[in-house]
Design goal:
The protein has helices spanning 3-18, 22-35, 39-51, 55-71, 75-93, 96-110, 117-132, 136-152, 156-173, 176-191, 198-215, 218-235, 242-254, 258-275, 280-294, 297-306, 311-323, 327-339, 349-361, 365-382, 385-401, 405-419, 424-440, 444-455, 463-471, 483-493, 498-505, 509-523, 528-537. By secondary structure, it is an all-alpha fold.
Length: 541
């Protein structure tokens, strides 16, 4: 086979990459390499193996391409390989020092060249590093430089990915509306097929979904997640990585789709553990949060303690301390976290929100007011429904702690109304706190009504909530079924057998049998029909 045949194979491989046919692309580039070992064929092979997550093959192909481009005197292409190698070491191994070495190598190669697209990619990777340090001003400056280089060299993927990076920095700075407009535009370009390289398109989508999780814009996140799924179906290939799927699962969990969230998280965890172990923590902490919501407290704590350094693990452990009635322990964790986040950053929202609960439980009304004011300021700048709801809920907690129960009732009612339809678990907690304040005002029937509504979304109430339910004569409604047991029972009620239930919940048949046995014990039943009947009578189904 001659040079023409080699070039034809390269074109076929690139076409396969463009349509998401990773295995076909790999085969074409490997055939091309059989005819001639060229850096272009190795570069193409590196992208096919990148998408297939064959990390050793990807790194080997990139390093070979780098050396051959250097030998050929093509400094720009060699710099490009150095940039992707740096990103790979970050992406697959979390090896920041190795990544920095490759980025520095790229920078030196580009020093004597005219400004080019590769310089733009260096700038946007530097912006990503600055974001990790919470240096949002520097990140925005670098991202804008990268956009200009993308426009100048007609590299749409560079321009739009840099726009997404600028958007993320703006969101972190509190300029949420501007930032999300940038992210929306960049993601539209990614899913509209404008990107020359699909990898930055996937990164752009992940940036958007991550931002939606951060600012709790779950409606926007759900809309874009649907678009990503449709794009993946059109390509007939998986488009996003395990990390992005973990962000997506968090959005599903907030919407109350715990089965869907668990399926995504388990698959993301398996995928990341096998192929990107450094990033598996992103799935672990979100699975821990799902378990906490489901009432599987021991499992949640074990998962958080697997990666105790992760910010979401710290948040989860603080929430567990609050749930157990230990606000002092929660406050210690949260204050330490808050000291490490710069003032003005939207990342301060969640520790501030939990500090309001901790301070109120400790009776420290002055500290509660200070933390509440800062949290409400952030929530007001974000303006998403869940953040507005969280602010109203926090105001209700502060009012109730001061004995201002009329004011607290209004706050909890507003919070529940805002959460309705988008965050059922949070709406349930609002209604239970509303019931507590109504009971303090002597409005017992209204309190029972709100408590019943709240219980519909909370499978396992906290100890303080169980005490409240006992006062309201609703203790039997807490018939302690975990969320997972309720999932199993709901599917039994739909007529599914053990094998079908196992498939739906992504668990083994043995685990289904164990859950069924525990359901029988907890509901004092001996048949599935009786369990469904008993649970229905208790309002659990």
């Amino acid at each position: 086979m001659g040079e023409t045949a080699h070039d034809d194979l390269l074109m076929a491989g690139r076409a396969a990459l463009t349509r998401g046919a990773w295995s076909a692309a790999r085969a074409q580039f490997e055939r091309a390499l059989e005819t001639a070992t060229t850096p272009a064929a190795l570069e193409g092979l590196s992208w096919a193996t990148w998408w297939l997550e064959d990390v050793p093959a990807c790194l080997d192909a990139r390093e070979q391409a780098f050396r051959l481009y250097r030998q050929a005197g093509d400094e720009r292409a060699a710099a490009r390989m150095a940039l992707w190698l740096g990103d790979d070491h970050n992406e697959f191994h979390g090896a920041g020092a190795v990544a920095e070495g490759w980025f520095n190598r790229a920078a030196r190669l580009l020093d004597d060249l005219e400004p080019c697209a590769e310089l733009g990619w260096l700038r946007v990777f530097e912006a990503h590093v600055a974001l990790g340090r919470h240096d949002t001003g520097r990140a925005r400056e670098l991202a804008v430089q990268a956009q200009e280089l993308g426009r100048r060299h007609q590299a749409v993927d560079l321009e739009m990915f840099s726009l997404a990076t600028e958007g993320l920095a703006l969101v972190e700075d509190g300029a949420v509306e501007r930032g999300m407009r940038c992210l929306d535009e960049a993601t539209a370009a990614a899913l509209g097929g404008e990107y020359e390289n699909l990898a930055p398109a996937a990164w752009t989508c992940c940036r958007l979904i991550s931002a939606c999780e951060e600012i709790r814009d779950y409606e926007r996140g759900a809309q874009w997640c649907q678009q990503v799924e449709e794009f993946s179906r059109r390509m007939e290939a998986r488009f996003v990585t395990g990390v992005c799927r973990a962000h997506y699962a968090a959005i599903l969990g907030w919407h109350g789709d715990w089965i869907g969230a668990e399926r995504e998280l388990i698959e993301a965890h398996e995928d990341l553990t096998a192929k990107r172990p450094y990033w598996r923590a992103e799935a672990v902490v979100r699975l821990g949060e799902l378990r906490r919501r489901q009432g599987e407290v021991e499992q949640a704590e074990a998962l958080f303690n697997e990666v105790p350094w992760h910010p979401l693990a710290k948040r989860g452990l603080a929430e567990l301390s609050l749930d157990r009635g230990d606000p002092a322990a929660a406050r210690d964790v949260l204050e330490r976290m808050l000291r490490r986040i710069p003032p003005g950053s939207v990342s301060r929202a969640w520790p501030l929100e939990l500090l309001v609960r901790a301070d109120a439980a400790l009776g420290e009304h002055g500290s509660t007011a200070v933390h509440l004011a800062e949290f409400c300021s952030i929530a007001d700048s974000l303006r998403t429904r869940p953040m507005r709801a969280a602010a109203r809920f926090a105001q209700g907690i502060h009012a109730a702690a001061r004995g201002e129960h009329e004011e607290a009732c209004e706050d909890f009612e507003d919070a529940a109304d805002l959460y309705d339809g988008i965050a059922p678990f949070e709406a349930g907690h609002c209604r239970l706190e509303l019931a507590r304040s109504l009971l303090s005002l002597g409005r017992t029937e209204a309190a029972r009504r709100e408590a019943r509504a709240g219980l519909a979304a909370i499978p396992v109430p906290r100890q303080d909530q169980r005490s409240l339910l006992g006062e309201l004569g609703l203790a039997d409604r807490t018939a302690v079924l975990s969320a997972r047991q309720l999932d199993v029972l709901r599917l039994i009620a739909e007529g599914l057998g053990d094998r079908e239930i196992a498939g739906q919940l992504v668990i083994s048949e043995h685990t289904v049998h164990r859950h069924v046995a525990n359901i029988f014990t907890r509901l004092d039943c001996s048949t599935r029909a009786a369990a469904v009947s008993r649970a229905t009578g208790l309002g659990l189904l």
